[in-house]
Amino acid sequence: MKEGEALRSVTKQITQEAISEYAAASGDMNPIHVDQEFAAQSQFGGTIAHGMMVAASVSEMMIAEFGMDWIESGRLKLRFRAPVYPGSGITAYGKVKRVREADGGSEVVCSVGVRSESGEDAVTGEATVKTEAPG
Amino acid sequence: MSVDFATLETGQELSDKSYVLDAQTVERYIGAVGDGSGIYQPADDRPIVPAMAVAALGLRGIVADLGIPEGTVHAGQELDFSAVVRVGDALRCRAVLSQNTVRGETRLVSLRLTVEDGVGRQVMTGKTTLLMPGGVAHA
Predict the structure, then answer these.
(1) What residues in B contact A22, CB-CB < 8 Å?
(2) Cβ separation of B77 and A55 shorter than 8 Å?
(3) A17: Cβ–Cβ under 8 A, 6 or more apart, which residues?
(4) Nearest CB to A26: which of B57, B75, B76?
């Protein structure tokens, strides 16, 4: 991949049903995610998706681009900047920032993020992966 | 179980959990996040577990051990994947407190995570940053 090249984005819909299912799967039953009454009184005014649930779309995007290299050498650094509410669509996006030679292959550094339908960045950060392909 | 974070010191180990990633748990996770990467192939003898599933399911034990206060917000996450994890693998996830400070009404807590497989090979490391309300003991 070349510097400046965009990654193939991943788009999905966040529903309360999926948030509740994620809560059950992850064991994170924080009421901010699953209790409408509690969440309504919070700073967010309603339930929100788990940060890791939203971040999963970034990893899915990186797998689509880099396959097993991501699974075996991926590095992710994310900040959760804004809540994602049920009923919102999200899009994981990314762009190659740097490519450099490393260990006979290359290390690819990408700026990544997740944007909600409103255009707000819910997640921003950086993803790094080592590939066997030369830089 | 719940923990009074005001009493904890950096460097303290907060959680040490061993678990086996079974197909049912992984498939539930994949269904919830709508993972369409295809990396998980249920027909395989021992399917590959998506990297983020290893992280999320590793955090599950920490959540159970710490009794994270209601209203806690996940502010940041770092993850470093170093090896493939497959369904049926035995994993050990440990969390060490790396930051515990109060800013106004919020407690900022960071945990260093290490996940190893059954032979002691490191498969993932990470850092979780949480913003907790109040910075006080909780029920």
Answers:
(1) 29, 32-33
(2) yes
(3) none
(4) B57
Q: How far is A37 from chain B (nearest CA, A)?
A: 12
Q: Does B125 touch chain A (CB under 8 A)?
A: no
Polymer length in residues for chain B = 139
Per-residue pLDDT tens digits for B9-34: 999 999 999 999 999 999 999 999 99
For A59, nearest residue in chain B (alpha carbons): B52
Quick one: residue B134, left, alpha or beta (phi over 0 = left, psi -120 to 50 = alpha)? left
pLDDT tens column, A103-125: 889 999 999 999 999 899 999 99
Interface touch B37/A60, C-beta < 8 Å: yes
pTM for this model (two decimals)? 0.92
Secondary structure of chain B as H, E, C letters: CCCCHHHCCCCCEEEEEEEECCHHHHHHHHHHHCCCCCCCCCCCCCCECCHHHHHHHHHHHHHHHHCCCCCCEEEEEEEEECCCCECCCEEEEEEEEEEEEEECCEEEEEEEEEEEECCCCEEEEEEEEEEEECCCCCC
Dihedral pair phi/psi, residue B85, rounded to 5°: -115, 135
ipTM: 0.92
Summarize the confidence of residues A49-73 as an average pLDDT.
96
Q: Give the Å distances, CA to CA, from A80 to A120, B13, B15, B130.
A: 12, 25, 24, 10
| pLDDT recorded at residue A27 | 86
List chain B residues with CB under 8 Å of A78: 76-78
